[in-house]
């Protein structure tokens, strides 16, 4: 039997719109990461870009459970001695509302050249407005 591979240009890519209001951040990130890799399609191949384009709106209203708002800490190092910076989830949402969800998705994608390519297919916006109306994204209702 021959193994059949689909060419990148023949892969059907859809645009989906997800409203993150009230959805758990980790479960949403896991579902989006899976869709970015194309695991929801029958033609999934691990070494090819098979996934869809995903637009996430209202990222500032994503839900976290327990005391994660005050206990979850994000770290960033400037590269200089003593340059370790830390921010809580609440502070991160206040300053950059789309970043915690984007970082959660980024952590669930492989750290390879393909992973960097896949991350370009997700767009995260803090509010309900987005500049991708021309792509006619289909609303996707996720329930957890």
Please tag this protein with its features:
144 residues; alpha/beta; Ribosomal Protein L13p, Chain: A; four-stranded parallel sheet; 5 helices; 17% strand
Overview of the structural elements:
This protein has 144 residues and is of the alpha/beta class. It has one domain: Ribosomal Protein L13p, Chain: A (Alpha-Beta Complex). Helices cover 28% and strands 17% of the residues. The chain is built from five helices and six strands. The strands form two sheets. It has a four-stranded parallel β-sheet with strand order 5-2-1-6, with helices on one face. Helix 1 packs across helix 4. The N and C termini lie far apart (40 Å). The mean pLDDT is 95.
How would you sum up this structure in a few lines?
The protein is of the alpha/beta class and 144 residues long.
Set out the fold topology.
Elements lengths: L14 E5 L5 H13 L15 E5 L10 H4 L1 E5 L6 E5 H7 L3 H9 L5 H7 L2 E3 L13 E2 L5
């Amino acid at each position: 039997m021959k193994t059949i591979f689909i060419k990148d240009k023949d892969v059907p890519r859809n645009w989906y719109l997800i409203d993150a209001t009230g959805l758990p951040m980790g479960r949403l990130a896991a579902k989006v990461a899976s869709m970015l890799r194309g695991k929801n399609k029958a033609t999934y191949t691990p070494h090819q870009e098979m996934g869809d384009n995903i637009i996430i709106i209202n990222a500032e209203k994503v839900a976290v459970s327990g005391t994660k708002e005050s206990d979850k800490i994000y770290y960033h190092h400037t590269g200089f001695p003593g340059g370790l910076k830390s921010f809580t989830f609440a502070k991160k949402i206040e300053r950059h509302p789309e970043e915690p969800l984007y970082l959660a998705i980024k952590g669930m994608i492989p750290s390879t050249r393909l992973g960097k390519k896949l991350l370009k297919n997700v767009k995260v916006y803090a509010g309900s407005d987005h500049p991708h109306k021309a792509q006619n994204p289909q609303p996707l209702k996720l329930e957890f």
